[in-house]
Amino acid sequence: MSRWRLTVPVLLAVMVATPAAAQAPATKALGRRLTEWLYLGQGDSIYAHMDPETQKGVGSPAAFQNFKGMIEEQGGFEVAIASEEMVPEADGKSVRYERRVRFSKVPEIPILVQWVFGPDGKVTGFDINSD
């Protein structure tokens, strides 16, 4: 099975920080919601939660239709969640939502879905990769 990867570079905003620990409960819920929107192809909803630099990197909300298609073609559909956690970024200001899952077409390969949130709660990075 070939390895697949969808990446938007992690772009960190320089802003007055909200402690990452204080962001964790709200961003975990948002990470779940963003992942659901990704699977449903709701690019407008995802795009609205991204910071301007990340929006520029993605290009347009329509790009998420391509991501959705690639995920379905290569992985199928999410069938199990192995774990979810919030991980503080090294900058001490940002936090990353990590979701380890299994997909129907490649159940033997653990997949890691990640969303990085800046101090303002906006998405500054996104990644789906084999774990």
Main traits of this protein?
131 residues; alpha+beta; Nuclear Transport Factor 2, Chain: A; 4 helices; 5 strands; 35% helix
Describe the structure.
The chain is of the alpha+beta class and 131 residues long. The protein has helices spanning 20-40, 43-48, 52-58, 63-74, and strands at 5-8, 78-88, 95-103, 106-117, 123-130. The chain has one domain (5-130): Nuclear Transport Factor 2, Chain: A (Roll), CATH 3.10.450.590. Helix content is 35%, strand content 34%. The chain has a five-stranded antiparallel beta sheet with strand order 1-5-4-3-2. A hairpin with a 2-residue loop joins strand 3 (95-103) and strand 4. It is globular.
Strands, helices and their partners?
Elements: E1 5-8, H1 20-40, H2 43-48, H3 52-58, H4 63-74, E2 78-88, E3 95-103, E4 106-117, E5 123-130
The total number of structural domains is 1
| Topology pattern, helix = H, strand = E | EHHHHEEEE
Task: Enumerate the spans where pLDDT stays under 50 for 5 or more consecutive residues.
Answer: 1-21
Helix percentage range: 25-40%
Radius of gyration using CA atoms only: 14 Å
For this structure, the CATH topology is: Nuclear Transport Factor 2, Chain: A
Number of strands: 5
**Terminal residue distance:** 14 Å
Helix count? 4
Spatial ordering of strands, largest sheet: 1-5-4-3-2
Mean pLDDT: 85
Q: Just name the CATH architecture.
A: Roll
Strand content bin: 25-35%
CATH class: Alpha Beta
